[in-house]
Amino acid sequence: MRSTRAVITVLISILAGSCRTVPPPVEPSASLSITPPPVSPALAPSPTATPEEFVLPLELAEPLELEILVHSDKSGNNQIYLLDCSSGEMKPLTEGLASNCFASWSPDREKIVFTSDRDGNSEIYLMDDDGDDPERITDHPGPDTFPAWSPDNRSIVFFSGRNGAENLHRYDLEDGSIRPLTNFPEGQGGVIAFSPDGSKIFFGFDRIGRYKIYQLEACGGEPKEIITNALRNSRMTCLEDPDGLALLYVSGTAGQDDIWLSYVADGRFVNITRDPAPDHSPTISPDGGSVIFTSLRNGGNWQLYLVSRSGRPVENKVIRITDDGFNYWFPHVR
Prior knowledge:
Elements: H1 2-16, E1 67-72, E2 79-84, E3 89-92, E4 100-105, E5 111-116, E6 123-128, E7 135-136, E8 144-149, E9 155-163, E10 165-172, E11 178-180, E12 188-194, E13 200-206, E14 211-217, E15 224-227, E16 237-241, E17 244-251, E18 258-263, E19 269-271, E20 279-284, E21 290-295, E22 303-308, E23 318-320, E24 328-333
Antiparallel strand pairs: 1-2, 1-24, 2-3, 4-5, 5-6, 6-7, 8-9, 9-10, 10-11, 12-13, 13-14, 14-15, 16-17, 17-18, 18-19, 20-21, 21-22, 22-23
């Protein structure tokens, strides 16, 4: 059982990080991987998609008034799509042979930040919320990835391997300047999330072969380790609820990849999902009451699901949002 679990964990980690190639410490990789590898022999390559397909939900009694930004292999390689849950329309926002992924809306919802290797190296880009006017904002031989907006809409924080080791950097949207926020001598960075008030930055990092989540004051200082068992490259979300500041993330603590919520102040943990199939990349609905995530619960492809934050995970009804033969990763909701 333990050996089976170990194999699944390795394969899931490969898929979750498929939008980039992790570089060695001295000679960074020049690009992202184009085609996501399968997570198991049973997961066949997805068929070729046509633009603006309709993705019909399975279990929705009434339309969800949500828009979901997500990257998918619908065209044969990673592209960014916009899913309108009320109509089921899936609109492509990027196209071509490059790999485009890890997309998020700006706080004012007018721009989208994402990672792309369209110029031969992993860089950070901006585009309008309809996919128009893409603009590269980083340009360095070292890979830049996992961008996250500051809540005040004035800067973007990302991981970069420009100095040999991967470290957090901040891009100022007003003057275009870039400055490092951490100084790790070695290791691999992961996902990033700001606290809603912008005062704290949470990020994943693997320093000694174990991926952990750290807290950093946005004004500077030393990173503080706060979660010791998390899954790399799976979206992390920070939220403020009546019980305090909390993080949604993925962990294999219970022997399977489930979504957990951890309160920053006292370290309390709440299990949000509990299923033998891996659940990844949690993001929160605009009203804060539901978690949208991607999962292999249907046994074949990564599909999008929704679950309430209230109640026990074994009792909460999980609603499947998408139903097709493609894969969906790293959702972001508005």
